[in-house]
Amino acid sequence: MATQIDKEACREAYNQVRDDNTETSWAAFKYEGSTIVPAGQGTDYEDFKKLCTDDGRLFGFVRFTTGDAMSKRAKFTLITWIGEHVSGLQRAKISTDKTLVKDVVQNFAKEFMISDPRELEEEYLCSELKKAGGANYDAQAE
After folding, report:
1. Contact, 83 vs 54, CB < 8 A?
2. What is the per-residue burial (b if ≥16 Cβ within 10 Å, else e) of 16-38?
3. Count of alpha carbons within 13 Å of 49, Cβ hemisphere only?
4. In the sheet that 72-82 helps form, which strands lie side by side, from edge to edge?
5. Where would I find the H helices in the chain?
6. Using CA atoms, how far apart are residues 112 and 115, in angstroms rounded to an integer?
7. Residue ranges of the alpha helices (H) in 2-121?
8. pLDDT tens, residue by residue, 26-84
9. What one-character DSSP code corresponds to residue 3?
10. CA torsion through residues 91, 97, 101, 103, sign
11. H or E element that contains 62
12. Positive or negative CA dihedral for 114, 4, 108, 46?
């Protein structure tokens, strides 16, 4: 059966993360049968990381505050999590299913495909977002 996505529910979760007037900093999307649905949202990135299990696969839309001494700004990332114990067929399918998620999650600075929990560390992701962000004035502040 072809994978589908609950666009309305997923878009609502996505918009909560994008909204500067909310504290929501992440939204996760999981498989429920053959449909991608919201798996949760929250304000603590550690809670998102707990959803990334060895046998799970999910998508995450996360807001990080990045920048340098001159300016701070919100940066968004799309994370595709594939646990170490996910079967080969499910691994292959997630790449095509990601296009459904990208129909909803359209604005992000960088995309990550992660299987190693160490790559979920906030410091690593923020450093990658900083590299993707262009000008860096940190050196002038020292």
Report:
1. yes
2. bbbeeeeebbbbbbbbeeeebeb
3. 11
4. 4-5, 35-42, 26-32, 57-67, 72-82, 110-114
5. 7-18, 45-51, 88-104, 122-132, 138-141
6. 10
7. 7-18, 45-51, 88-104
8. 999 999 999 999 999 999 999 999 999 999 999 999 999 876 667 778 899 999 999 99
9. -
10. positive
11. strand 57-67
12. negative
pLDDT band at residue 133 using 50, 70 and 90 as cut-offs: low
Query: Which position has the token pair 């909803």?
Result: 104
- Residues 128 and 79: their CA atoms lie apart, in Å, by 13
Q: Which two tokens stand for residue 64?
A: 């990080």
Cα 50–chain centre separation: 13
pLDDT > 70: percent of the chain: 91
In the block, tokens 């918009």 appear at: 15
Helix (H, G, I), strand (E, B) or coil at 37: strand
The CA-CA-CA angle for residues 81, 49, 131, to 5°, reads: 70
What six digits make up the tokens of 13?
Answer: 């979760």
Residue with tokens 């646990």: 83
Tokens of 119: 């790559």
Q: What is the pTM of this model?
A: 0.89
